[in-house]
Design brief:
Blueprint: H1 5-54, H2 57-74, H3 83-104, H4 129-145, H5 153-168, H6 170-174, H7 178-197, H8 201-207, H9 225-278
Helix pairs in contact: 1-2, 1-7, 4-5, 4-7, 5-9
C-alpha cells in the first residue's frame, strides 16, 4: 500500500493509540476505583499525619494496615497510576523528536507529502488550520477526560489550568512544521474518540470502570477562569505567608538558642571566677 506521508503519519498515530488502548482502559478503571477509595483514604491520611507528629509507631502501623485493606477492598493500586506516564511519555517524545527531525533535515519527499492546503509537510501551516484543529482536539479530550473525575473546586481549577495551557500553546504549535501538526491532530482526535468509547456503558462494564462518587457536600459549581486565577493568587499568597511565618519561627528559635548559649557561657564564666581568684 503506497500511502503519502500525511497518511502514513495518521496511520502510525492510529496504530500507537490502538496498541495503548488496553492499557488506557486498565488505568482508567484503576483511577476510577482510586476515586471511590479517596474519601476513606483522606481519613486515614489524617491518622497517619497525627501518628507521625506524635511518633507513635503502633498507630503508624495500624493506619498503614487500614490503608492497605482499603486499597485491597476497592481493587485499586496507586502505583498503577504511574504506569501511564512511564509508557506513554517516552513514546510521545520519541514521535515528536523523530517527526520534527525529519521535517527539519528535511526529508525531501516530505515537501510534497501533504495534501490540500498543507502540501509541504516541512513548512508551517500558512492558514493556521492545523494548529486550531490540534488545540480543539486537546480541549475536547480534556473535557471528556474530566467526566471520570469527581467534580470538585480543585478539579475545576485543574481543568481550567489545562484549558488555558492549551490556548497558550497555540502560538508555539503554529510555528511547528505541518508534518508534526498532522500527528498532533490525529493523536488528539483519536484520544477524544477513545475517551468517547470509554463512556459507553458496555465498555465501562467490561473494563470495570466505576462512576466517580459525588464529592462530600454535593457537586460543587465549576469555577470559571477568573475564580481559578483568584485561587492561584490566593494559593501563592498563602504559601508566601506560611513561608514568612516559618522563617520568623525559625529566627525566633535561633535567637532563643543563642540566648541560652550566651547565658550558659556567662554562668560558666561566673563559676570559674572564684577559682581563678584563689589561684
Amino acid at each position: 500500500m503506497d500511502l503519502p506521508w500525511w497518511g502514513s503519519i495518521v496511520l502510525l498515530a492510529a496504530v500507537i493509540r490502538l496498541a495503548l488502548f488496553p492499557l488506557q482502559l486498565r488505568l482508567t478503571a484503576n483511577n476510577s476505583r482510586l476515586a471511590i477509595a479517596a474519601p476513606k483514604m483522606k481519613a486515614i491520611a489524617a491518622e497517619l499525619q497525627k501518628a507521625k507528629e506524635e511518633e507513635d509507631r503502633a498507630a503508624l502501623m495500624a493506619a498503614s494496615t487500614k490503608m492497605r485493606a482499603i486499597y485491597a477492598e476497592s481493587g485499586a493500586n496507586p502505583l498503577k497510576s504511574f504506569l501511564g506516564p512511564l509508557v506513554q511519555v517516552p513514546i510521545a517524545l520519541s514521535m515528536f523528536f523523530a517527526i520534527r527531525r525529519m521535517c527539519n533535515l528535511p526529508v525531501e519527499s516530505l515537501k510534497v507529502g501533504g495534501t490540500q492546503w498543507f502540501v509541504d509537510l516541512t513548512a508551517a501551516d500558512p492558514y493556521y488550520i492545523l494548529p486550531i484543529m490540534s488545540t480543539a482536539a486537546m480541549m475536547s479530550m480534556l473535557k471528556m477526560s474530566t467526566k471520570d473525575t469527581p467534580q470538585t473546586a480543585a478539579s475545576g481549577h485543574m481543568s481550567n489550568f489545562f484549558l488555558v495551557l492549551s490556548a497558550i500553546s497555540f502560538p508555539v504549535m503554529a510555528a511547528f512544521p505541518s508534518g508534526l501538526l498532522v500527528y498532533f491532530v490525529a493523536n488528539g482526535v483519536l484520544l477524544a474518540v477513545q475517551s468517547a468509547v470509554m463512556r459507553i456503558p458496555a465498555v465501562r462494564k467490561y473494563a470495570g470502570i466505576v462512576s466517580p462518587p459525588p464529592p462530600e457536600g454535593g457537586v460543587e459549581k465549576k469555577p470559571n477562569l477568573i475564580e481559578s486565577a483568584q485561587a492561584v493568587v490566593k494559593y501563592f499568597s498563602d504559601a508566601k505567608q506560611q513561608a514568612m511565618e516559618a522563617s520568623a519561627t525559625a529566627s525566633s528559635e535561633k535567637m532563643k538558642n543563642q540566648r541560652r548559649e550566651l547565658e550558659h557561657l556567662i554562668k560558666m564564666k561566673k563559676s570559674q571566677q572564684p577559682k581563678n581568684h584563689t589561684s
